[in-house]
Specification:
It is a single chain. The protein has five helices and seven strands, in the order E-H-H-H-E-E-E-H-E-H-E-E. It is an alpha+beta fold. It has a single domain, classed as 3-Layer(aba) Sandwich (Aminopeptidase). The chain has a seven-stranded mixed beta sheet with strand order 1-2-3-4-5-7-6.
């Protein structure tokens, strides 16, 4: 991992940069896994959920002051989808005693892929979710993102045409 990487909570002022980074990540990093038509369709269900920023559970990774990655976790029921996909969102609060925290909306700038950014964000999310009483986490992963979660000890529990659902039960 590059020593210049730092992580911090996302702020409202970051939103334009995050939207651009997310679009670029979807277009570039899914290319090895999806057809152009599938990538275009991905934009319909993937994207920035500003509820995570408002909740203080969304993070940006910076390299020399520039944002190169983002991602977060949620104490809410929504597992995936952005502001533009309201039909996928459920703002109900989860119960840490029975629900897994949702790991969500992880994106890396293509120029910085496979340099530890996803692991850095995932570690921060797991730590913070655990500190709020969650003993498990559920990330929803794209085909390209699935590799990160599998390498970090998550198991696939559901595969389908939508992103893959993975679960880790070792946050405690």
């Amino acid at each position: 991992m590059t020593a210049a990487l730092s992580i911090r909570p996302a702020e409202a002022a970051d939103l334009p940069v995050l939207r651009a980074l997310i679009g670029l990540a979807i277009d570039s990093l899914q290319a090895g896994f999806l057809s152009p038509e599938q990538i275009a369709a991905s934009h319909m269900i993937m994207g920035l959920d500003t509820q995570l920023v408002e909740d203080g559970t969304y993070f940006v990774v910076e390299n020399h002051g520039g944002i190169v990655g983002c991602g977060g976790w949620s104490r809410r029921a929504t597992l995936y989808g952005g502001d533009h996909s309201a039909e996928l969102r459920d703002s109900a609060l989860l119960d840490p005693s029975r629900d897994g925290a949702k790991i969500r909306a992880m994106y890396t700038h293509p120029d910085f892929a496979r340099q530890g950014i996803g692991r850095l964000i995932l570690s921060r999310c797991e730590h913070e979710a655990s500190s709020e009483g969650f003993s498990s986490a559920e990330p929803m992963a794209t085909l390209s993102g699935r590799l990160l979660y599998l390498a970090c000890g998550y198991d696939i529990v559901e595969l389908g045409p939508k992103p893959n659902k993975l679960v880790d039960i070792s946050l405690v």
